[in-house]
Amino acid sequence: MSRYQPPLTLTPRMFSLVAGISEQLGQLSAVRNEQLTPQLRRGNRIRTIQASLAIENNTLSLEQVTAVLDGKQVLGLPREIQEVRNAFAAYEAMPDWRPESRGDLLKAHGLLMQGLIDDAGRLRKAGVGIYRGDRLLHMAPPASRVPQLVDDLLLWLKGSDLHPLIASCVFHYEFEFIHPFADGNGRMGRLWQTLILSQWRPILAYLPVETVIREQQDAYYAALAAADQRAEATPFVEFMLQALALALTEAAQSDYLTDQVTDQVTDQVARLLAVLDDTPELSSSELMSRLELNHRASFRNTYLGPALVSGCVEMTDPDSPRSPAQKYRLTEKGRARVRP
Fold it and tell me: Where are stretches of biased composition, namely Basic and acidic residues (predicted)?
């Protein structure tokens, strides 16, 4: 049992959020029996990777990330393309890792940062500060303390009797506070929290909570800062639990974690396919207009993104995903869906 105990105040809000998340998972389990088809697993993983990297200023879109992982040529910065490939490899290797293992933590970082930094898979040897612009947000502990701090945190995680939802959030915060690597700490913290949660409920390995964090990025950093100021993880734990609850709600509404429509074609995707069957090529704005939608993020997350990931829709100009002239059309698979 670890002697180190991360500072934390358990609050009624935490217990309420944990109860709500558990209820959401129970309802989901009744529908899915915690099994996801390969297409759903891949689609959710792509959304997770794109959002987690976007938080770190990777500019590749969901469509571009999908294309990279499909082995297609993408016009993008080589570093950003490498980040996508590395992240996919790391998330795919996740079932083989133990959350409390320093060796596995280093392996994961090695995969995630391969070819991106010289010290991939090794704890940092120098001091590091977290900046936003020119403003210092957090000065991490000195490098000489990092090995012991990491070992203490991992030992605490192994012996903690906190609910896994809370323990995973505490770990995430403490990991970011230590900032054990020269680079890649944000994406590693999110990856390791997903690993911890997946050991509790396997379906959480594919919950794209990063998409919620990406949409609430300022609040994410504010929660980290608030925890720093209070010298305890409490504000960050509450934020992350709320993000998990919201991610589950959005997933249920968008069928990200269910396949109630035959073979992963959701109601939303089916509507989009029907529109494209009437007019062979349409821009995203034209599609939103035909579907009577106003919220672009919701359109991309629940209609266009899943349709592209499923292979039912393709871009007319895949080499320039951000082209103003970009339009979308049905693939043969999509046409077969509309006209079986």
Answer: 329-340
